[in-house]
Known about the structure:
Mean pLDDT: 72
Keywords: Membrane, Transmembrane, Transmembrane helix
Number of domains: 1
Main location: membrane
Helix content: over 70%
Structural class: mainly alpha
Distance between the termini: 42 Å
Strand content: under 5%
Shape: globular
Number of helices: 6
InterPro entries: MFS_sugar_transport-like (IPR005828), MFS_trans_sf (IPR036259)
Organism: Macrosiphum euphorbiae
Protein name: Major facilitator superfamily (MFS) profile domain-containing protein
Amino acid sequence: MTxxxxxxxxxLLLVNIGGFCCTTNYWILDSSIDRPLSGKWFxxxxxxxxxxxxxxxxxxxxxxxxxxxxxxxxxxxxxILCGINFFGASVIxxxxxLLSEVxxxxxxxxxxxSSAGLSYLLIFILTKSYIEIxxxxxxxxxxxxxxxxxxxxxxxxxxxxxxxx
Length: 165
């Protein structure tokens, strides 16, 4: 975090603000899930779009700092990371809500739990393998940022094309 201008004191502040953002997000999502204009699919698409946008902005910010285009201002990465935390927390609970519509009633409990458990396992593997992915040299600068950016954009496109089918 120090390379984007966040000191250790601000990292602790970021953890506390991040916890508040997650809690607030659960309340907002819980109260707005059954509203007419904010159904499950609309919220999923909106959250993925905003999360993709915020991660892209963070990647652009890191690239701009490393190339010397801008100077680090601590409030910019703190704001972006809080936004990623706020919208990322809802990405974790949305599979439970969406999968309840996909599976038939008899298999809903086991199938939804297995799918969400596999999702959590993949998130864990992705988090633990980030250092190895970051060390792969594909011949472009900031390989992991581009790799994860393309991954999120692909997921965003797949969600938009699956909507309503």
